[in-house]
Structure formats: structure tokens, C-alpha cells
Amino acid sequence: MGSYLRPTELTAALEALCEGGPGGSAWVVVAGATDHYPARVGRVVDEDVLDVTAIGGLRGIAAVGASPGIPDGGWRIGALTTWTDLVETEVPPLFDGLRQAARAIGGLQVQNRATIAGNLCNASPAADGVPNLMALDAVVELSSARGTRFVPASAFVTGNRRTVRAPDELVTALLVPAPLADATVRSTFAKLGSRAFLVISIAMVAAVLETGADGRVLRARIAVGACSEVAQRLTGLEADLAGRPAEASLAAVVRPAHLAGLSPIADIRGTAAYRREAALVLVQRALAGLVA
Description:
Blueprint: E1 4-5, H1 10-19, E2 28-30, E3 49-51, E4 61-64, E5 74-78, H2 83-88, H3 96-104, H4 108-113, H5 116-122, H6 129-135, E6 139-144, E7 147-152, H7 153-156, E8 157-159, E9 162-163, E10 170-177, E11 184-192, E12 203-211, E13 217-225, E14 232-233, H8 235-241, H9 272-291
Parallel strand pairs: 1-3, 2-3
Antiparallel strand pairs: 4-5, 5-10, 6-7, 6-10, 8-9, 11-12, 12-13, 13-14
């Protein structure tokens, strides 16, 4: 049986991470633990577990001014913020897509415990929060006894269950930059699964659209998840959408070539070809919904 530690201060948690677990290995950090313990049913939990849920000041969503990581200001999502917290907090339309994902992750019990940051750190290819954070240009705040650094969410996940977080680092917040000044912002999220709830995504799309006073697209940010080992931004499509009128014709801009960078797998939930076609349709529907 491994060790269990539940510090109440951030400094204590960072010191523990720096020193490592009693067994000589790195601590396994848990918050909601909605994936950690279910994955270990039927076997002895022998890891050294660092439970961060008692650390104050790491929960909640707040607008913030200019700060390291987001020079023009935006919003700070504490690392212990749950999906239910997001649903119940008044936030601008920029977060609509992430809120839609919040309502689709597991059931209410999971949403009440699972954290947005934990969904990112878990680094599952089918994590519903990851494409949304990428479409939001979110930045990950990583703290350690050595200091604090900031990593774009798009660079944080490096593979299936792999991230750039060092063993002595703790994710303390997710930072979402403010949109372009005077832009009208809409965002959305769509996923395909075998049922509405308690389902692993077959394909999913997150999109943020910023339009100007002339009704044209100033900036589009679109990410596809569950169709590659790591969620992917469709940068070619984003460039093709810029400057176009934000109307129903946007959906017609999407072509299979825009999704060429995806590398879907075939498994029990769908073939690779099905996933690629589903992602194409989801992107088209997302754009159509944003301009409706």
C-alpha cells in the first residue's frame, strides 16, 4: 500500500513534490480522482498519492487583469474548479463551448467532483475539455518549488496520458486570454457518442468565433478531439475562415483537406474512416450553429 498525503498549503504540496514520495517515486497527484481510482479497481493501489483537494485558493473562476501568462488579461480557472462550478458560474459566451462539455462529462456525481484541470492532466485522447481549452487559447500555470512557468494548452499534452508536467510541478490554474477588443464572440462544442451521457467521445469539435462590427470573421479557433492521440487545432481552416462573412456559407468552406492532419484510430466505437467523416460533419455543424 502506498502513502497518502493531503496538504492544506500550496507550499507544503510543492515541497512534497520536490522531495518525491516515501517510496522514492514521484507522487501521483489527484483532485477529483474520478479516473484514477476507477482505473485501479481489482488491484492494490501502491502509488504514493498526493491529494490536493484541501489546498485553499485553487478553486473558482475569476476575471483577472494583465498577468504573467495572459498579458492582456482574461480569466483564471483555479486548478480545483469542478465542471459543476463552471456550469454554475456566470461567465461570458466565450465559455459556452466549455460549459457544453461540462454538462456532457460523465454524470452529475462525476461533474461535482471532477476538475477541469484534472481532465487536461489526465491527457486522454477523448478528454472533452482538451479541445475546448485549445480553442480558447488557454494557458496552463505550472508551479513548483523552482518557480512558476506557463505552457499553452495546445503544447501541454504530448501524447496518450503524457504531458509536459515535471514530477515536481503542480498545475495551479488555467488561464484564458480575453478575446479581441470589440469582437462579438461565440463558442460551441459538439461530440459524437453512442448515447447522450456517460459516454466516451467518438469524435468531438470545439470552436470559438470572433466577428467584427462588419459581420466578418476576425478570428476562428477550431479544435478536434478523439481523432488523434492529441487533440488538433485546424489552423488551415482557421486561416481560410478569416475575413469571410459570418453567415451560413461558412460551413461550406470546410473541406476534407482541412482535417488531413488528424490520425484517428479504429476501435470498438468506430473505424478510422468513420471518425474522420464524423469530425468533418461536426466541424460543419459547429460553424453553422455559431452563425445561426
